[in-house]
Design goal:
Length: 148
């Protein structure tokens, strides 16, 4: 696909790079870039082109048809398996030794070549896990203290 380097595409790429640890919906991107003069149609057109060029990844979440986009053109994204928190929506990089270990074990056991830059493991991040534990402990304390 022929790529044109327009002002709107540059603004979009810059925005996505600044939010590289997030999966963003097109309407959120459009809203955030509207003050820069980037039109809704330009956002959708450029997202499709950037996806075709391999600079971003389009993902959908279980139970919804809504698409989200994640910047994947950064050098650090190419060697990492990504960890996606289903609670807060942030994406983290697994450290390279862990990424290499997991991918190498899968490849040697199955002969399946892992594309690390596109591999996403979904779960709950440390902060969200701590928040859930704190909430659960608070509920337990309230229930135990009330005589029920």
């Amino acid at each position: 696909m022929q790529s044109y380097s327009t002002k709107q595409r540059k603004l979009l790429l810059s925005y996505l790079a600044a939010h590289a640890d997030e999966e963003l919906a097109a309407d959120v991107i459009s809203r955030d870039l509207s003050h820069e003069g980037v039109s809704v149609s330009a956002v959708y057109r450029n997202l499709a082109a950037l996806e075709a060029d391999g600079k971003i990844q389009k993902v959908t979440k279980s139970g919804t048809r809504r698409a989200f986009y994640r910047f994947s053109d950064a050098a650090e994204c190419r060697r990492h398996i990504h960890l996606y928190c289903t609670e807060c929506g942030k994406t983290y990089h697994a450290d390279v030794p862990t990424t290499d270990y997991v991918a190498d074990r899968i490849e040697s056991a199955s002969g399946f070549e892992v594309d690390r830059s596109k591999t996403v493991i979904r779960g709950v991040c440390r902060e969200c896990g701590k928040a859930a534990d704190t909430t659960a402990n608070a509920k337990k304390t309230v229930n135990n203290g009330s005589g029920t």
